[in-house]
Design goal:
The structure is a single chain. This protein is an alpha/beta fold. It contains 16 helices and 26 strands. It has two domains: 9-265 and 469-482, Aldehyde Dehydrogenase, Chain A, domain 1, CATH 3.40.605; 269-454, Aldehyde Dehydrogenase, Chain A, domain 2. The protein is 36% helix and 23% strand. It has a seven-stranded mixed sheet, with helices on both faces. The chain has a six-stranded mixed sheet with strand order 11-10-9-12-13-25, with helices on both faces. The radius of gyration is 24 Å and the shape is globular. The structure holds NADP nicotinamide-adenine-dinucleotide phosphate. Residues 164-168, 173, 191-194, 223-225, 228, 232, 243-245, 248, 251-252, 264-267, 298, 392, 394, 420, 461, 466 line the site of NADP nicotinamide-adenine-dinucleotide phosphate.
Length: 491
């Protein structure tokens, strides 16, 4: 099989792999030659060097994307063909892609394989997505002042889209921005997280090999704090599709000026367990919801609100279930939990646990780490005074809180500044409907932990969890603008 990546990963004089990046159709190490190291969180080894872009590189990428907007010859049908070809290439290279994700993120290989499959599936479903681009016909005769008029409403591309992505799903999240952006006729400048840039470099190579025209997709790598302002404040960028922390999302919103913003930010999903819930199901779901990808998911269950009369039994079952979540070598197919991303994440978990214990929480499991391998941790008797009850955790900690009834659970859940996800466990369908309407999150899942897969259902946050919705037809909605043409019939 042809190795489509060999030309973009060059060995330097010390024998280390150095990746190149694509700007204006050209793979290059940068003029400055500056690079930074990408390390494997599980072993501490340097996996490869990646270009450390400077302001000039970012500006070149933006100009390349702008120039490509004016090129004829990348018709909608050709965009679909590129996506189909890209899907084939993702599948052909799935092992290398999955291994790369695991090496740079520390997540278990089984999860990395799912991420690659989800990316291929996202590419397959582009045909479905383009339906949103068909537009609308609106008759005017329903309203007096438009009775002799009708309109067609088109969806037009926005222009240059900056796609800024986080470390936790380094392939899928970036691909979920780039695919709809390109399908809608935009061009893209993509910026991956500095901990995990390689998966996206590989995906950009795949898009190029699949036939993406020059400049339609560009990638820059380097520190977000150094390069962010150049992207955010550029007058040549019409939209920013950002997934990451609320802190950076708020910064972008403050700095961006008049641009379309699609912001997928932090979360604090609560799991509400009522007295009539199927506790066995709830326990399995909530453990998976908390510990999958070591809790490094925006939709991770981040506080468990249990009705007090079933709490003891729930806690007993959770402690049993947590024994299955053993941290291990991420490259082992059987491993369920790998590492957290870096030392800063370890320090954050330690501080959250220390604060909770100081304020009266009980440690039921975990609480320790070896290197970046952090144990599945369960804290009981958590109260709102503790940071772990209020802050986004983004790590493998399950805080358990007691509630008297569903009213208290809803009120506690809604007291969060986040509003991304929540889930409710009950067998009372009427109560499930009532609670799910009252919760202030973008999605509420009944009798399962939140999980958003390939994006068949719309996904996104309220309050400090963001702006806009991601999903198969919803992302494309965010990345287009309406254009109304009104026809007048003579009397
Ligand atoms: P992050 O620190 O906010 O970084 C996200 C991206 O923003 C990275 O590419 C980062 O680059 C870049 N960045 C940093 N400073 C910037 C600036 N001043 N201007 C522009 N870009 C800047 O987030 P993370 O730690 O990678 O990811 C975890 C966060 O993402 C969590 O809060 C999680 O909830 C959120 N998330 C949300 C969703 C969702 O759908 N709602 C999904 C996944 C993750 P560098 O890496 O170079 O700093």
């Amino acid at each position: 099989m042809e190795n489509i990546f060999s030309e973009i990963m060059v060995r330097n004089s010390e024998g280390q792999f150095q990746y190149q990046i694509l700007i204006d159709g050209c793979w290059k190490c940068l003029a400055s030659g500056k690079t930074f190291e990408v390390k494997n969180p599980a072993t501490g080894e340097v996996i490869a060097l990646v270009p450390d872009c400077d302001a000039a590189d970012v500006k070149n990428a933006i100009q390349a994307a702008k120039k490509s907007l004016n090129l004829d010859g990348f018709s909608p049908i050709e965009r679909l063909e590129v996506m189909e070809k890209a899907r084939e290439l993702v599948l052909k290279n799935q092992d290398f892609l999955a291994e790369t994700i695991t090496k740079e993120s520390g997540k278990p290989i089984s999860l990395a394989r799912s991420e690659v499959k989800a990316t291929a599936e996202r590419l397959r479903l582009t045909m479905e997505e383009t339906r949103v681009l068909y537009g609308e016909y609106l008759p005017g005769e329903w309203v007096e002042d438009t009775r002799n008029k009708f309109a067609i409403v088109l969806r037009k591309p926005l222009g240059v889209v900056a796609a800024i992505s986080p470390f936790n799903y380094p392939l899928f999240i970036a691909a979920s921005k780039i695919i709809p952006a390109v399908l809608a006729g935009n061009s893209v400048i993509a910026k991956p997280a500095s901990n995990t840039p390689i998966s996206l470099i590989l995906f950009i190579r795949i898009l190029e090999k699949a036939g993406m025209p020059t400049g339609a997709v560009n990638i820059i790598t380097g520190g977000g704090s150094a390069l962010g302002d150049i992207i955010i404040q550029s007058q040549d960028i019409q939209a920013i599709s950002f997934t990451g922390s609320t802190k950076i999302g708020e910064y972008i919103a403050n700095q961006a000026g008049i641009k379309k913003l699609h912001l997928e930010l932090g979360g604090k999903a609560s799991a509400i367990i009522l007295e009539d819930a199927d506790l066995n199901n709830a326990v399995v779901q909530i453990c998976r919801g908390t510990f999958r990808n070591s809790g490094q998911r925006c939709d991770a269950v981040s506080r468990v609100l249990v009705q007090d009369n079933v709490k003891e039994l729930f806690v007993e079952k959770v402690v049993e279930e947590v024994k299955k979540y053993v941290v291990g070598d991420p490259m082992d197919e059987k491993t369920q939990m790998g590492t957290v991303i870096n030392e800063k994440a370890v320090q954050k978990m330690d501080a959250l646990i220390e604060d909770a214990l100081k304020k009266g929480a009980t440690l039921l499991a975990g609480g320790k780490h070896k290197g970046l391998f952090y144990e599945a941790t369960v804290l009981d008797n958590v109260t709102l005074e503790m940071e772990v009850a209020r802050e986004e955790i983004f790590g493998p900690i399950m805080p358990i809180m007691s509630v008297r009834n569903h009213e208290e659970a809803v009120s506690l859940s809604n007291s969060s500044e986040y509003g991304l996800d929540s889930c409710v466990f009950t067998q009372n369908i009427n109560l499930a409907i009532k609670i799910s309407k009252e919760l202030q999150d973008g999605s509420v899942t009944i009798n399962a932990a939140p999980g958003h897969g390939v994006g068949h259902f719309p996904f996104g946050g309220n309050k400090k969890s963001g702006l806009g919705r991601e999903g198969l037809k919803y992302s494309i909605d965010e990345l287009t603008k309406l254009h109304t043409i009104i026809f007048t019939q003579s009397e």
